[in-house]
Amino acid sequence: MNIIYLDLETTDLDETARIVQLAYKNTETGQVVNEFFKPPVTISFGAMATHHITEGMVAGKPAFDGSPQKEALINILQSSILVAHNAPYDIGVLKTEGVQTPKYIDTLQVARHLIESDNYQLQYLRYSLALNVEGAAHDALGDIQVLEKLFEKLINIVIEKFAFTSMDQAIEKLLELTEAPVLVKTFKFGKYQGKSISEVVVFDKNYVDWLYKKKLENPTPQDENILYTLKHYLGN
Questions:
Q1: Residue whose C-alpha is closest to residue 233's, from 196, 179, 188
Q2: pTM (2 decimals)?
């Protein structure tokens, strides 16, 4: 199965986000795409502070909708596996833009399964795993260069860990791990930030129960792991 390494820079981080920069590498052909687009909504200052793409930089760029890049990506993804870090976010933005993603691997979720780390952000893993990449951070093209190295690292880990004899077996395992929730060890937010969830449930089970019910009211794809963890420790 063909692999497409993809990263987006967008107008924001919420459900209204649209594409500002699209970069992907098609491993079957070796083609690398790196394009900027003028979005139909304004770029937030928070987004600019991260990727440094301003309204002026995309003022003369085409819209993504109706572009040859959009049509090409739609066709490619029908018979390929998209690989992205925090893939549900990119997939959500692509869906808003009218691009469906039938099959994907989330290197963020897979890394949580396979690697012990204090942080799973792409650039943190770049340095903690000593991935040899020269690309700039928070630039879609630079990020797919890091992404490709991380994917290769994860492939090597599963081949060794599960004694696989083929790349196809390893890719199937990464697809499986992408769908499997992970037990979170510590709270990343709230009044018990940094505390062990297994310990907090012992001395403040009411808080854990309240948080679980609160998350259930309006769950997001990013809540899957914490919901799975809270349910596990509450015995629900």
A1: 196
A2: 0.91
Across the strands, what pairs with 104? 82
Q: Provide CB contacts within 8 A for 178, sequence distance 6+.
A: 87, 104, 105, 106, 109, 110
Would you state the pLDDT for residue 216? Answer: 93
Q: Dihedral of the CA atoms 14, 147, 115, 187 (nearest 10)?
A: -10
Q: Is 207 exposed, middle or buried (0-12, 13-18, 19+ CB in 10 A)?
A: middle
Residue 180: both structure tokens together:
């499997």
β-sheet with 19-26: strand ranges across: 32-36, 19-26, 2-10, 80-84, 104-106
- pLDDT exceeds 90 at position 83: yes
Pick the CATH number of 2-179 from 3.30.70.3400, 3.30.420.10, 3.30.200.20, 3.10.180.10: 3.30.420.10
